[in-house]
Amino acid sequence: QAQLVESGGGLVQAGDSLGLSCAASGRTFSMYAMGWFRQTPGKEREFVAVINKFSSITYYADSVKGRFNISRDNAKNTLYLQMNSLRPEGTAVYYCAASRSLVRASSEYDFWGQGTQVTVSS
């Protein structure tokens, strides 16, 4: 069973950049597609980006395309999300998650981190 721990959240201003990391335990990290999601109070968890096992395919939500970049280092069991040109609507708790399939639906993810807060001030 994989354990995921996010880090890198914080308070930034609109237009700033911020990088998130997700450290995975266990030897199975490279077997999973990895995704980032975000959630604000009272709303459903929203898909942000996903990357396949080999880092050869990535998908992004339209709202972040061109500003966010997802990447992974299987040797370090770590997933990354580089967020540029942040907007106030990007304020949320960001979660990393692992899935056996390259999918956007949160219901298809097997393991989740505890989340890290990102706050973007205007």
Task: Write up what this structure looks like.
- It contains no helices and eleven strands.
- It is mainly β and 122 residues long.
- The mean pLDDT is 96.
The rough form would be described as: globular
Biggest β-sheet description: 7 strands, mixed
Return the string of H and E elements.
EEEEEEEEEEE
Roughly how many Å is the radius of gyration? 13 Å
**Helix/strand/pairing category:** mainly beta
Q: Average pLDDT, to the nearest integer? A: 96
Find the count of extended strands (DSSP E, 2+ residues). Answer: 11
Low-confidence stretches: none
Beta-strand residue fraction? over 45%
Total DSSP helices: 0
Helix fraction by DSSP (H/I, runs of at least 4)? under 10%
Q: What is the straight-line distance between the termini?
A: 40 Å
Describe how the helices and strands are arranged.
Elements: E1 4-7, E2 10-13, E3 18-24, E4 33-39, E5 46-51, E6 58-60, E7 68-73, E8 78-83, E9 92-99, E10 111-112, E11 116-121
Parallel strand pairs: 2-11
Antiparallel strand pairs: 1-3, 3-8, 4-5, 4-9, 5-6, 7-8, 9-10, 9-11
Quick structural overview:
With 122 residues, the protein is mainly beta. Helices cover 0% and strands 48% of the residues.
Keywords:
single chain, about 120 residues, mainly beta, 7-stranded mixed β-sheet, 4-stranded antiparallel β-sheet, 11 strands, about 50% strand
